[in-house]
């Protein structure tokens, strides 16, 4: 019946569920403190904020090449600016990597319990997402390598990983790369890399400089506190960057984002203050959760700015979610990602982490 026909979404698109962001409002409409999106509790560098305000009244399109920003990224990270492309958040770059290098009939491989955008990126371009088994919530290199087939086109690795916070050491990243055929693209997603200790490095950048099949992505959304500007970048061999440049939006990074990110790179004092705060509070909060081990609470050791807490005893993740919400905080429950028995809690201010720890103790019947 011609009258009944309508445009239908492509079948591979209809297999995607829209991304559900964390909410910061409780069931009764109360505004909660948001510890559900891994944002920086210290906010944004003042210099970055001033820089974005300074361009806010321009009527012009942004620089389509983000030249100044790429020069600054190159300077700070010791990279060739010609090998850098900026994106509307690293989300865009992850999607472009899938779109540029995978299509119908291809497989896009990643670990179980890794970043949810990888699945969407694979489906968006008509490729088949393939999930390799984890190793107690961490990436399992042997399982990833075992899952490689002659259809594998792209492998995504988040390091540190979201939502588990686990970290794959340099030797393991190297082993993963060495085990992949050279025509498979390895994307090392380093969204949380700035939270690693200063001398810690998974070697992703080195691989990206030395090989033709490695792309590294970074973001200004996490430690730089610029999530609202939507800005990320990728680096890799020139032919990889060329592919991303062909398919990105011409003006994909706003003027305020470019200005703020460049200024943020100049304020490494803010970055180290954020890193120190996170290291200290992550350690304290992890210890507080560990102390509830006899009640079945288990922290997954994290190197990022959040902690995944498993509830393997009488207290359930749902009960904890509700109690934490009643205490005034939004944290992330991810049953849709196969984690019904876990909460992902972003590291906030000290007083907030203390209050959440006290809430968990009270729920376990311990003295708060
Ligand atoms: N990669 C990982 C592992 C993430 O957790 C996130 C943020 N949730 C991103 C990439 C994307 O961040 P953005 O698009 O804000 O750069």
Automatic annotation (TrEMBL):
Taxonomic placement: Bacteria, Pseudomonadati, Pseudomonadota, Alphaproteobacteria, Sphingomonadales
Residue stretches making up the Aminotransferase class I/classII large domain: 31-358
Listed GO MF terms: histidinol-phosphate transaminase activity; pyridoxal phosphate binding
Protein name (database record): Histidinol-phosphate aminotransferase
Cofactor(s) this protein cannot do without: pyridoxal 5'-phosphate
Catalysed conversion reaction: L-histidinol phosphate + 2-oxoglutarate = 3-(imidazol-4-yl)-2-oxopropyl phosphate + L-glutamate
Annotated pathway: Amino-acid biosynthesis; L-histidine biosynthesis; L-histidine from 5-phospho-alpha-D-ribose 1-diphosphate: step 7/9
Pfam families cross-referenced by the UniProt entry: Aminotran_1_2
Keywords noted in UniProt: Amino-acid biosynthesis, Aminotransferase, Histidine biosynthesis, Pyridoxal phosphate, Transferase
Location of N6-(pyridoxal phosphate)lysine modifications: 222
GO terms (BP aspect): L-histidine biosynthetic process
Species, as recorded: Altererythrobacter rubellus
EC number, as in UniProt: 2.6.1.9
Superkingdom: Bacteria
HAMAP family per the UniProt record, alphabetical: HisC_aminotrans_2 (MF_01023)
Subunit structure comment from the entry: Homodimer.
Similarity comment text for this entry: Belongs to the class-II pyridoxal-phosphate-dependent aminotransferase family. Histidinol-phosphate aminotransferase subfamily.
SUPFAM superfamilies tied to this protein: PLP-dependent transferases
